Amino acid sequence: MELCAQSCATMNDGHKIPLIGFGTYAPEEFPKVLAEDATKVAIEVGYRHIDCAYVYGNEPDVGSAIREKIADGVVKREDVFYTGKLWNTFQTPDLVRPALEASLQDLQLDYIDLFIIHTPLEMKPGDDLFPMDENGQLIFHNTDIRDTWEAMESCKDAGLVKSIGVSNFNRRQIELILNKPGLKYKPVCNQVECHIYLNQRKLLDFCRSQDIVLVGYSVLGSSRDEKWIDQNSPVVLEDPVLVTIAKRHNKSPAQVAIRFFLQLGVVVLAKSFNSKRIKENFQVFDFQLPPEEMKELEALNQNYRYVQAKRWEHHPKFPFADEY
């Protein structure tokens, strides 16, 4: 992963991805306008990588924030790296481009920088984002992911997106795409849950061997959305080892958690709707963790997932049953 001047990594298609991204997901009870206000703050303090998704329901708000900061002269469009995601109900090849175009319409942008398959867990195609049967069970579907990938490649060829990648894929699922006959573009990234209790070291090493960037979400722990997260799960930012190291450096536990993954070679997504913390989470380039502290933090790994996706564990493509 070659670094560039603006704290970026160069991906396998030659495009650059900023090393720190601003995450915009929020549980449903949060008003959508919070994402707009927080994105404006993020751009003002220096974030140039904005991560969102159609299923978050706030692309119009995030797009509005980006356009406002362009209009204000804070950034140009080419300075902003926007990631969007193909939702699980749009994986049949004929729905891929319309889904991307719907995001572009919501964002009011001409192209997006990175478009990734949100999960390999396809559901019944259509506009119902969580299709259920009469027993309240999700209705799964089973398009060959390689056909979905070809439709993603066509979106890149059409200039609607600059780079294409995947998210929540395990090694086998990435290899399926890499070994596809007639592959035109490799995935540039795999975006996965990544924090001190799930450091994804094996997946990171595999992705690195294939020149694929690992992008980490929930690096600061999770939003603890009751719909997805066990409320008794450990709190990353309260970990005593992390807290002790943070005190040594006169930094916050969040800054140390972010710095740890940057030094491992992971692109980090940090999420907060608090202006002070948005700014603080970006201030991680002025210190270095020595090897012994990196080892201490690496030893905290428990392969513990916040996003266990139990509603999907019977899906034939459930990715988290494999070791990595």
The residue fraction in helices comes out at 25-40%
Amount of beta strand: 5-15%
For the largest beta-sheet, the strand count, sense and barrel status come to: 8 strands, parallel, barrel
Spell out the helices and strands N to C: EEEEHEHEHEHEHEHEHHEHH
What's the domain count? 1
- Identify the strand order in the major beta sheet: 4-5-6-7-8-9-10-11
- Overall mean confidence score, pLDDT: 94
Using only CA atoms, what is the Rg?
A: 19 Å
Low-confidence stretches: 1-5
Second CATH tier, the architecture: Alpha-Beta Barrel
Number of strands: 11
CATH class placement: Alpha Beta
Domain NADP-dependent oxidoreductase: 20-301
Organism: Eleutherodactylus coqui
Active site: 56 (proton donor)
Keywords: Acetylation, Eye lens protein
Tell me what the structure shows.
By secondary structure, the chain is α/β, with parallel strands linked by helices. The protein has one domain: TIM Barrel, CATH 3.20.20. 34% of the residues lie in helices and 15% in strands. Strands 4-5-6-7-8-9-10-11 form an eight-stranded parallel β-barrel, surrounded by five helices. Helix 1 (33-45) packs parallel to helix 2 (59-71), helix 1 packs parallel to helix 9 and helix 2 (59-71) packs across helix 3. The radius of gyration is 19 Å and the shape is globular. The protein starts with a strand and ends in a 26-residue tail after the last helix. Mean pLDDT is 94; it is low at 1-5. This is Rho crystallin. Keywords: Acetylation, Eye lens protein.
